[in-house]
Specification:
The protein has about 170 residues and is an all-alpha fold. The chain has helices at about 5-15, 15-20, 25-35, 45-55, 60-70, 75-95, 95-105, 115-130, 135-145, 150-165, 165-170. It folds into two domains: about 5-130, Serine Threonine Protein Phosphatase 5, Tetratricopeptide repeat; about 135-173, no CATH class. The longest helix has 17 residues, at about 75-95. Helix 6 (about 75-95) runs parallel beside helix 8 (about 115-130), helix 7 (about 95-105) runs antiparallel to helix 8 (about 115-130) and helix 8 (about 115-130) runs antiparallel to helix 9. Helix content is about 70%, strand content about 0%. The protein contains eleven helices and no strands. Mean pLDDT is about 95; it is low at about 170-173. The relative contact order is 0.07.
């Protein structure tokens, strides 16, 4: 879409908290719906923006089919990865954490970008919802370690140990 549309979408998103403070999330979704209606038929951006609006206003159940539609329409690049993360989170929120794990696991091997830590954080939540807390904690510590001013090496090692089978973990201590 053109730069003007992108600027208007970004401006709308910058007002979300104002709508939320007034308890008028429906009005915010109407703004996003109007912007999405400007897009050409078949554009993946419409369902993506609408899904984000539903998700950001507490309606993961309504966001899931729209995220899927955006992906089916060929959403690509940065927004495709955002959609994958957000869809996985919404699936977890609606009791389908295993589907979230299936979506996010391949993202661990995707080309690195600024969303890597978000992938790991969301995957950790999905794993925790499935009772796989050690794996989730391992992902979170591994994502956090590079950002620490000290203890990077030890935190990365602890992350690896948490992901190791239990017997192997004890043998390395």
């Amino acid at each position: 879409m053109d730069k003007d549309w992108e600027t208007r979408v970004a401006a709308a998103w910058a007002t979300l908290d104002d709508y939320a403070a007034r308890g008028d999330e429906a009005a915010f979704r109407a703004v996003i719906d109007a912007l999405a209606a400007e897009l050409p038929d078949g554009s993946p951006l419409g369902p993506f923006e609408r899904a984000c609006a539903w998700d950001s206003t507490g309606h993961s159940d309504k966001a899931v089919p729209l995220y899927r539609e955006a992906l089916a329409r060929g959403l690509s690049g940065h927004r495709r990865r955002r959609t994958t993360i957000q869809l996985a989170s919404s699936l977890r929120n609606t009791g389908r954490a295993e589907e979230g794990v299936e979506l996010l696991t391949p993202e661990l091997d995707a080309p690195s970008d600024e969303l890597d830590d978000a992938v790991r954080a969301c995957l950790a939540l999905c794993l925790s919802s499935l009772g796989r807390d050690r794996e989730g904690l391992s992902l979170v510590l591994g994502a956090l370690a590079p950002h620490l001013p000290r203890y990077q090496r030890s935190m990365a090692a602890y992350a690896r140990l948490l992901a190791a089978p239990e017997g192997e973990d004890a043998a390395r201590r």
